[in-house]
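Side project, low priority. Logging it here so it doesn't get lost.
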Amino acid sequence: MAATDDKKRLPRKDLPADAHIETLAVREGLPPTQWGENSEALFLTSSFNHPDAATAAARFANEEEAFVYTRFTNPTTMMFERRLAALEGTEAAIATSSGMSAILMLILGLLKSGDHVVCSHSVFGSTISLLANQFGKFGIETTFVSQTDVQQWREAMRPNTRLLFAETPSNPLTEVCDIAALAEVAHTAGALLAVDNCFCTPALQKPVEMGADLIVHSGTKYLDGQGRVLAGAVCGPDAIVNGPLMATLRGAGMTLSPFNAWVVLKGLETLSIRMAAQSANALKLAQWLEQQPQVDKVFYPGLPSHPQHALAMRQQNGCGGAVVSFTTKPAHGPVTVPGPATLSEDAMRLRQAAFHVIDHTRLCSITSNLGDTKTLITHPASTSHGRLTEDQRLAAGITQGMIRVAVGLEHIDDLKADLARGLDTLNA
């Protein structure tokens, strides 16, 4: 908002400047209405009334901060934005209809034809597709590099590089990039660093404290925490968030609905305790998986065997997060599962083994979402990364034998038994 007079700005909650993240997660937002509600109000309205024409004109011109039209201003949405910005430690946040629409808004708002992006090839499959295919059509070129090799990022920089984009830990390999090192690469070249913090959330990791300029979220995941709604957000400096990003949102309308904002707002109240409990469960499951004879490799930042374990512990508040991926050993016997004709027999045997384990679960939900209190299991090569070519998947380290488990809040012994049902009968 352009308004600078405090009398023309929306009020803020009176909270201690040194309030901890757990307090901010349940208290930050807007002051209550004249009715004194304790739970945040849900404003289901498309537009807002003004006392007179002159005031309406001032508000539409951003001379007075006010709620105008829900496509870009709504009290419930603003409560979510203020709370998330407080948790991430940024000046502002802007909400969107999904995590992918947040990335869309980021690129549309900051880049133009002829600009260049450097991105990890380990990011979410839809992010790769959006950058390489959709924005590529409009003259924004992306170079994909190793998530963990800082030198590759440095060598990929060009005079027209405007943005570095990373997701850490990555989906589904849980590779961890050095945020501070990438920030130095970006800033030396006059570029910005955006970090997708979906896997960790600010409960475990605050990228801005390590030099990141912008934080991207899919609120669909852990911010909501129960798989109820779609939501997204970008957190960052006020000049960017309420400048080019707000202008993009206002014109393009990738708007978060007030109801979805309210649901995620309530989800934030339990974020810290959920992330702690689910991370603890994930560590126990990862340790157990490492001991299973039919498991080839386990990918989890909380394990000492993870290549970036030490870095993850520094960046992620000592937690590995709640996502565990692992690869199975190949299935024996004839191949009976469906698959692209382009896959080799070895790849199909890996695919069959992964399908066997997934199909033998009874507790885990077979879905490609993550961040739910229920444990979710998926085969990334045929779901979240299914639209990529096999070469693209292999470049990102995603084999046909990989299984991703987003660990929930069930008892850990029940989760072990659920996965053991498939693992113990594989090649039996």
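Brief comment: The two ends are 64 Å apart (CA to CA).
Revisit when time allows.
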